[in-house]
DNA sequence: ACCTGAACACCGTTCAAGT
DNA sequence: ACCTGAACACCGTTCAAGT
């Protein structure tokens, strides 16, 4: 059913000419639908009712497509709120970035992949970082201190949650995983923590973690730590 | 030349029978050499002087290969130091994890990819986390507090530096990047920070960032923040 | 029963042929 | 000059044929 309407869309879109903006929007939509693995030049072209090579008129190669997508996403982050202290301004903006990231769960993957390829930040990311540095500077941070602050915040500035593992529910239990009692014997501290958190959560099924709460907890601990460095 | 000795290795290894351990070691070595992009089932088989399908006797599929590699890497992290306070113990272990990560720069990529695929942590990672939780518990953290602590530490527990972009030197300047003066006009706060850091670094060419210093700065700020939560 | 070559269904991108 | 189909060099994995 989704298949049929997508086909119709593709046929319809054949009329309107391709543009970089339309290519990027379609790429974001495609990744939103099926994850970043579902995003290939060939599938994107099909979605747009166009031959694969036609895309190369608007993006030089796939990496440039990914760059453009990142800029689209960073453009979705709210601008800084004026007339507040630095801590509130940073906090609100980071939480806005996090909402963007939750809307596009695949985004952190391509941003990190880009970073690991040692590519320079995209213009939109540079503008975002520049604005963030500006907030710290206006809040009284020296240049040296804001440098450390940017490193401390790291990818959390863009709303990354930097979990070590995803404990969200909905994971199908591994059929050949050891039984719970054996797990508890082998990893007693994890078991203690997991049972306490599960009990604590009450109605929440599966993982008892409130990811939003934990994110804000870590963010506030970090911001408070930075505030303590101010003269 | 490296090509020739690798070929000789491959021929020699044909004699000794394949084992899961040998497959994993060769995979780690291959990734160390050429990055994770250079690691394919086909190239790995060639390196081992074996037909690609022979690998599937020892790993069910590529994801299981990656899992095995992660366990090899986590096994390289030093065991916890006994007879110290929790903060020192955590600090030393995280710094050991970071040294492992610096030896294998591709490791964070596959660990994060695994996490994003919502796969359960590997046994070695579970054991590592269990041991870390144990250190916090012995240090007087309640179950609830250690839960928050694990979220706050996040992937930094494994030595991840969670930078937003890699400012290391050695990046070839983008030929169609805007000239420095235009960059400075467009991103004034980044320019101010960059010039101050570069001046500060003295002899260091390119990026003036001391990544190790910044990592420890962020780690200590986090640990101090956690210490302040203890009763 | 074990091993393995060919084949399948993809991928990003090049390039030459068609308009 | 523009557009595009076929082709190239890969990839992980299936499967049937060979020993």
TrEMBL record, chains A, B:
Alphabetically ordered keywords of this record: DNA-binding, Repressor, Transcription, Transcription regulation
GO molecular function, one term: transcription cis-regulatory region binding
Single GO biological process annotation from the record: response to antibiotic
Repressor in keyword set: yes
UniProt-listed SUPFAM superfamilies: Homeodomain-like (SSF46689), Tetracyclin repressor-like, C-terminal domain (SSF48498)
DNA-binding region: 40-59
Pfam families: TetR_C_1, TetR_N
PROSITE patterns: HTH_TETR_2 (PS50977)
Domain HTH tetR-type per the UniProt entry, residue ranges: 17-77
Protein name from the UniProt record: TetR family transcriptional regulator
Source organism (scientific name): Streptomyces fungicidicus
